[in-house]
Automatic annotation (TrEMBL):
PANTHER family, per database record: CARBOXYVINYL-CARBOXYPHOSPHONATE PHOSPHORYLMUTASE, CHLOROPLASTIC, PHOSPHOENOLPYRUVATE CARBOXYLASE
Protein name per the record: 2-Methylisocitrate lyase, PEP mutase family
Protein source organism: Noviherbaspirillum suwonense
Listed Pfam families: PEP_mutase
Protein origin, superkingdom: Bacteria
Length: 285
């Protein structure tokens, strides 16, 4: 089933944030049906930097291709601003689609963008963003590849302006709508009442961010069709590493870390080592 078909179903789709092939494998193993390749999480893990527009098009594209080597799950990819104007957007869409993206998310911030839950964001004009969405739609090779339109207007121009932008982006042909950083349950309900009958809506669950956290069931009842948990993975990894490094540093051994680790065989199980090695025997001389 394609992501497009899956989003037609009533049951909400949960896409955890991933940032490399390993996190993608772990999410697949946990039973998720789709993945969200988070720009923020690539910045956190690859650059050790915040989500402030430092990650380049090529780094994201390469990450997508690497994930695609290891999983067939649908991937929603965070393309930030599309890395430039409408022409850049077209190149981004073509390359990300070829690298294996099932959905490509574009937002209406100026460049360099910043995390939707940080203060001090700025927007491009709605008309320019409409042009970018149209450029994205024209550039994709398949209409099964979805274009997710995100507006960051709530924090900049207010909630009404965000709804107006949502309307314009929907009219431009966006396949999924993402009103970023809505502030409370009432705003969430207004968004879904206005748009849910016309387009799948994405909810963004950022732990400690501007939007109240809800579980998948609650989001489905409100009317969302897709829920991403983009940064939670790295926050969990950071927590695990803190404990792991703390113990190793303190005791000079991993004895005390045993309960926090997969053992050698379990990790090879995640990686599929045995099957890979067996497969390679076919080519032995
Ligand atoms: C969705 C997001 O764009 C991302 O890069 O994953 C971020 C998430 C985050 O910073 O945790 C966002 O701007 O909401």
């Amino acid at each position: 089933m394609t992501l497009k078909q899956r989003l037609l179903q009533q049951q909400i789709l949960i896409a955890p944030g991933v940032y490399d092939a390993f996190s993608a494998l772990m999410a697949e193993r946990a039973g998720f049906e789709a993945l969200y390749l988070s720009g923020a999480s690539i910045a956190y893990t690859r650059l050790g930097a915040p989500d402030i527009g430092l990650v380049s098009f090529a780094e994201v594209c390469e990450t997508m291709a690497t994930i695609r080597e290891r999983t067939a799950l649908p991937v929603i990819i965070d393309a930030d601003t599309g890395y430039g104007n409408a022409l850049n957007v077209q190149r981004t869409v073509r390359r990300f689609e070829r690298a294996g993206a099932s959905a490509i998310q574009l937002e209406d911030q100026t460049s360099p963008k910043r995390c939707g839950h940080l203060d001090g964001k700025q927007l491009i004009g709605a008309a320019e963003m409409v042009g970018k969405i149209r450029a994205a739609l024209d550039a994709r090779a398949s209409d099964q590849t979805l274009i997710v339109a995100r507006t960051d207007a709530v924090a900049v121009d207010g909630f009404e302006a965000a709804l107006d932008r949502g309307e314009a982006y929907l009219e431009a042909g966006a396949d999924v709508l993402f009103i970023e950083a809505v502030r409370d349950a009432a705003q969430m309900r207004i968004v879904t009442e206005r748009f849910a009958s016309r387009v799948p809506l994405l909810a963004n669950m950022v732990e400690g961010g501007k939007t109240p956290l809800k579980n998948a069931q609650e989001l489905q009842e409100i009317g969302y069709r897709l829920a991403i948990f983009p940064g939670g993975t790295v926050r969990a990894v950071a927590h695990a590493l803190e404990a792991y490094f703390g113990e190793l540093r303190q005791s000079g051994s991993n004895k005390g870390n045993a309960g926090r680790m997969l053992d050698f065989d379990a990790l090879n199980g995640v990686l599929g080592t045995q099957a890979i090695l067996e497969g390679s025997r076919r080519y032995e001389g």
